[in-house]
Amino acid sequence: MFDGFTAFRTRANGITINGVRGGDGPPLLLLYGYPQTHVMWHRVAPRLAQRFAVVCPDLRGYGDSDGPPSDAGHEPYGKREMARDQLALMRELGFARFATAAHDRGARVARRLALDHPDAVDRLAVLDIVPTHVVYRDLDQRHATTVWRYFFLTQESDLPERLIGADPGYYLDYTMDEWCGTDGAVTAEARDEYRRCFDPATVHATCEDYRAGATIDLRHDAVDATARIGSPVLVLWSARGLGAAYDVLDVWRGEADDVRGRALDCGHFLAEERPDEVAAALEHFMTA
After folding, report:
1. Is residue 288 over pLDDT 90?
2. Are β-strands 121-127 and 27-31 bridged in parallel, bridged antiparallel, or unpaired?
3. Which terminus of the chain has fewer CB atoms gathered within 10 Å of its CB, N or C?
């Protein structure tokens, strides 16, 4: 799925991070979301590698990267710590400053990376999210029924882990099918990889990711309530999903001064449902 790319396993921030890299040019870090792996980018990364040095890692606890133990405050899975992983990884690979494009949970990591390390991130693209504090702030009954994982996965361990673990394949397929707006967009090969990696350790780590989102991440956002992202920001979102619930550009203009973007006619998995449009938008933004 990543022709011409090289696999790596690199120690960074005290853990081993798995991923692939390919291409030559300005460095570009690609992150992904729940419940996937770096394979989410397999239809976009090869095209981007024609112009950029592309790095596609697995987030901590996801895919084949290490999932370190958590703690009562969920700090090891806070987006600040997960951002440190990516900063350390890029430095280990020789990149002090780089662009980042990220989807879903990975975009939450990338947002925190841009806030905490503005000297490292020169451009930021976020796919199909609004910040976590906005999700919790603006809930109503209709919206709450569509983001139920923000409440289910945040329950005390190990309630969601046991319930998901009763049939993890069914749960993963249900999630993919619920969020995907284009039949066949998630290929069988990619889905098999997601399924392979969705083992008990990953289920627990991903719950910790959501638990951190509902606790320590919100505290960090409250402390940084007036902080703004200094780099240019591109926002792409699903017209059928996120765009039906938020004025997405308006939300992100509350986070950064230079924001542009548009909706795509698809569901949540933009990079798999509309790979050509995503690749073209990222190429234009990263080179403008």
Report:
1. no
2. unpaired
3. C
Beta bridge partners of 264: 238
Asked if 35 and 172 count as a contact pair (C-beta separation under 8 A), the reply is yes
Sign of torsion, CA 233 15 76 88? negative
How much is the pTM? 0.97
Pairing between strand 53-57 and 15-22?
Answer: antiparallel
Beta strands in the chain (DSSP E): 6-12, 15-22, 27-31, 53-57, 98-103, 121-127, 233-238, 259-264
Residue partners of 42: CB distance under 8 A and separation at least 6: 1, 2, 190
Residues in the chain: 288
Question: What is the Rg, in whole angstroms, of the alpha carbon atoms belonging to the chain?
Answer: 17
Q: What does the pLDDT look like over 56-91, one tens digit per residue?
A: 999 999 999 999 999 999 999 999 999 999 999 999
Cβ within 8 Å of residue 40, ≥6 positions away: 32, 33, 103, 190, 269, 271, 272
Q: Would you please indicate which residues are annotated as catalytic (active-site) residues?
A: 104, 268
> Which token pair is 68?
């370190």
Whether the CB-CB separation of 176 and 191 falls below 8 Å is answered with: yes
Closest CA to 78 of 125, 116, 127, 39: 116
User: How far apart (Å, rounded) are the C-alpha atoms in residues 42 and 38?
Assistant: 8
- β-pair partners for 127: 103, 236
Q: How far apart are CA 52 and CA 265, in angstroms?
A: 26
Are 131 and 229 in contact, with CB atoms under 8 Å apart?
A: no
Q: Sign of torsion, CA 143 144 148 151?
A: positive
Alpha carbon 174 to its chain's center: 19
